[in-house]
Design goal:
The protein is built from ten helices and two strands. With 248 residues, the chain is mainly α. Helix 5 packs across helix 6 and helix 5 packs across helix 7.
């Protein structure tokens, strides 16, 4: 099989390379890499990190190296960069409330029981558990209760004899508790309350709301009829509990 030396980096051409051609070229180049005796060393070199002008980057940011595309190597580089964060110092983790939550978590499994044993509400207990996961440098998406407690024991934050085991499936950070319902506000004042209120001008106290009338109340002045009273002869022809028939 003949393959151009440009297959690992792409042709130097004007304009973009058609997707189908690019995918075929990359697949052929990767196939050659998979049979190369120095594939691992090639990938290790190209994926190593160098620092230039204070910025970290891959030694070979472009091209196919060691059987991996540039995009694959960049994704691995970004993931590795987030994973190398160091754990927080023990003194930063050892706060009274955080230690109470940790000791409660060593004995209990459910978020409610942990919160009650720690003397805090569920939201605070869950937040402290989340902080412990972060400060002990665990994966927030996949860390389990067992892993969190093991890390705490290893750092000297918890006595191993106090830990009650589980099957390893209980997450270290439980889902947030549903927000408690806020007490409903006091009911709004009705039409009668408004009409009798001394703060309402006398000219507005005569306004009327009829159950079947969808319009806004209209202020009534001295010697004037309200809109409802003016329309009463017409509205009374059509009871409000009977729908009008569509016109033919």
């Amino acid at each position: 099989m003949s393959l151009s030396l440009d297959a690992w980096h792409g042709d130097d051409r004007d304009g973009s390379e058609p997707q189908r051609e690019r995918e075929a070229r990359q697949a052929a180049a990767v196939e050659v890499c998979l049979n190369c005796p120095v594939m691992v060393q090639c990938d290790a070199y190209a994926s190593s990190v160098v620092v230039e002008d204070g910025q970290a980057r891959l030694a070979e940011p472009a091209g196919i190296w060691g059987g991996r595309l540039a995009l694959e190597r960049h994704r691995a580089f970004i993931k590795r960069r987030h994973e190398v964060a160091s754990a927080a110092p023990v003194r930063a983790v050892r706060t009274p409330q955080r230690l109470r939550v940790l000791e409660a978590l060593a004995v209990h499994v459910s978020p409610e029981a942990v919160a009650e044993a720690a003397g805090v509400d569920v939201r605070t207990a869950n937040w402290q558990r989340s902080r412990l996961v972060t400060q002990l440098n665990l994966d927030k998406e996949s860390a389990t209760r067992r892993e969190l407690l093991a890390a705490a024991v290893e750092r000297g934050l918890l006595d191993a004899d106090t830990v009650v085991g589980d099957d390893g499936r209980v997450p270290a950070v439980p889902p947030p508790a549903p927000a408690s319902r806020m007490p409903s506000s006091a009911p709004a004042a009705g039409a009668e309350d408004v009409a009798e209120s001394p703060a309402v001008p006398a000219v507005l106290r005569g306004r009327v709301r009829r159950p079947g009338h969808l319009g806004r109340p209209v202020p009534v002045g001295p010697g004037q009829l309200s809109l409802d009273d003016a329309l009463a002869p017409v509205l009374n022809l059509f009871p409000h509990n009977e729908p009008m028939e569509a016109a033919a």
